[in-house]
Structure formats: structure tokens, C-alpha cells
Specification:
Blueprint (H helix, E strand, L loop, with lengths): L7 E4 H4 L4 E3 L16 E4 L4 E2 L2 E2 L5 E3 L1 H6 L10 E4 L7 E3 L8 E2 L3 E4 L7 H7 L3 H10 L10 H5 L2 E4 L3 H39 L14 E4 H4 E5 L8 E2 L5 E4 L2 H4 L7 E2 L7 E2 L4 E4 L7 E3 L4 E3 L3 E6 L5 H10 L3 H5 L10 H5 L2 E4 L2 H39 L13
Parallel strand pairs: 3-9, 15-20
Antiparallel strand pairs: 1-11, 2-10, 3-6, 4-5, 7-8, 7-10, 12-22, 13-21, 14-16, 15-16, 17-20, 18-19, 18-21
Helix pairs in contact: 3-6, 6-12, 9-12
Length: 400
Amino acid sequence: MSVPKGWRLTSLGEVCSGALQTGPFGSQLHANEYTDDGVPVLMPKDLIDCQANIVTAAKIPVEKASELSKHKLQEGDLLFSRRGDVARFALIDNLSAGSLCGTGCLKATPNKAHSSKFLSYFLQKNAVKRWLEQNAVGQTMPNMNTAILSELPLMVASSRNEEEKIAQILSTWDKAITTTEQLPANSQQQKKALMQQLLASKKRLPGFSGGWERTILSRIADVIMGSSPKSEAYNDNNDGLPLLQGNADIKKRLSSPRIYTSQITRECLIGDILLSVRAPVGDISRSIHHACIGRGIAAIRAKSNISQDFIYQWLLHYEPMWESLSQGSTFESVNSSDIKSIHIEIPLIQEQQKIASVLSAADEEIEILEQKLGCLQQEKKALMQQLLTGKRRVKISNVS
């Protein structure tokens, strides 16, 4: 590993001056001592996205917490999972400070020569996660201890000042990403409200009036249930059509198996509506392939004088109904007759097309926002790679 000038290789134990500690033993804290209110006790499940969630944490009375004061967490502490997913950790901030390190965790307190926030970014590197997973002990469940954790390799900057500057830059990116994450979510909620109004005729678009027709899905669309190809239908030469088999393929992933064209019994066309009919039931997407469809998928294709886009938006809006139609105690599925018998109300074709156009425009806006978010996340990832390895240096003010 190339070490830039002024930087150095070290370990977590060194940057913490040996201040690593396991949470309280089970004999010190019993299940019957937890209460609805009080001091949060952080466990591995509460370490989410490198932050501690005190809302989900179990609580104990203040009096009991005072007996365990040596496990009290301070702002800047690093809290690690001791068992299970040993790569999970959290930086203790001002909101989670005062909580207790739980039985399933380990706490590490960096010394004053280093920035806890810088270290928290370094700990997000894939190489660090792999080291933790590879060095955990235990055959049935991975376990971590303070001796192993203290050996965790780190690379630190030339000074705390440089570390804090790097952390400040990355924190600014985090804030921009957090803000951008809200935009698609907000647009989704707005679209959902619009769907509730437009698809139930509670709100009519300008220029449209008159009643809607109540019908069933099979009268306005062909429902093609997938089937399992025979073993001799599979083609290893990458010829024929791809086989879409289930939920993963609904999410626009091209399945690797190929089926001889002559052996295909059920197929979908580009633009068909795909519905997963086996667990998990109810995922919906538009086909981007001419493909063979297996037993886990149904293809829905609008009949003449019916808008395919309208049916697609209607099925998206009524996704929750699939749970009520699912059958099977061990493996949920929905059958052909239930799909074909779904009741749906539709306006005339012109209004179908207009409603679908409005909702499709909302989908496009959401997709653009999600792409913007993805770009920000990738740019931050690239920036982390440069800043946390010293390949890109920051300007720091001289400290007298």
C-alpha cells in the first residue's frame, strides 16, 4: 500500500491508545430490567448506516444506567458490532451520546490526535469491512473481541487538522446526498396522491366527463401465464430468447439462461406488463425484452382500444391487492383465474391515455431524481477513494 508523504499506517488500537472495551456481560444486565423509557442501550441492530438509532434501542432506568457508567458512550466514540455482522459500526454523535454500549457491542475511543469523523469514513472502506469479516472468530456466528479489533489496520493523515478537513468535505457531500434522497421520496408521495385521485375518477382531467365502465381484467387485456421449459429447451450457446423466471427478472435484470425459440411455449414482448405471480407476489414492471416467461411470471397485454400504459399505472396503484389474492402457506402464489377476475374501472380510451401520460411524466421525474442521486453517490465514492488514501490532498491552514 502506497503511503503519501506525512501519512502513516497504524491500527485502531494505536489511534485509540488502547481504549477499547466490550459491553456489559449478560450477568450485569438482564432482559427483565429493560423498560419503555430511560437510557438507550445500543445493540448491533441499532447500528444503521454508520449511525446509532436510539429510537429503536432498548431502554433501562437511569438508576440502572448509573451502575453501568463505564459503558456510557461519548460523542466521538466508535461503536462496533461484536457478533453477527461484525462490519457494522456507528459514530456516536451528539444525539446518541449518553447511551450505553450494549452487550453485543464494542466501543473504541480515539485519542485527541485523531478525528473520529475521519476514522468513521475510513471504516466505511470495503477493505476494512473485509478485514473485519475475515478476522472474526467462531464457526456458527462471527464474533469480534477487543484484541482482534485493536489490530484493525488503518491509515491516518499527517495531522488531526488534515483529517478534520477531509471529514468536513465528505460531510458536505453526505448532506447533499441526504437532501437529494428526499426528492424522489417526495415525488413518489405526490404521484401516489395523484394516482388515488385520477385512477378512482375522484379527480377528472380538463375536458373529460361521463361515467367509467366497471369490468374485469380479462375483458380488456390478455393474461399470459408463464410455464416451466423442459430441460431440453435450455440452450448453452447464447441463442434463442432469455428466460425470465421470477421476481429478480421483474426488476429489469436479464436472466442468463437462454431457451431455444422452437421450445418456447409462453413469451412476453417488449412493453408487456410483467407481474410476479410467485413469492414475493405482486412486483410489476414493463418488459424490456422479447423473452420466454417461466412459471413465476405473468405477462399482461392490453387489447385493442385499451391503453397499455393506463393498465400498467392502475396495476402499480393497486399493488396491495396481491397480498389478499395470494395463496399457499409455504410458498405464496396467485393463480390465473384470480388475476383475470380482477375488477377494474376504466374511462374511454382518450381519457385513459391522458391519465397514463400524466402519471408517466411523474415516473420520468422520479427516474431523473434517482439518477441524480446515483451520480452523487458515485461521485462521493470516488472522492472518498482519493481523499482517504491521500491521493488527493486538501489545503489546511497553518496551526500555530
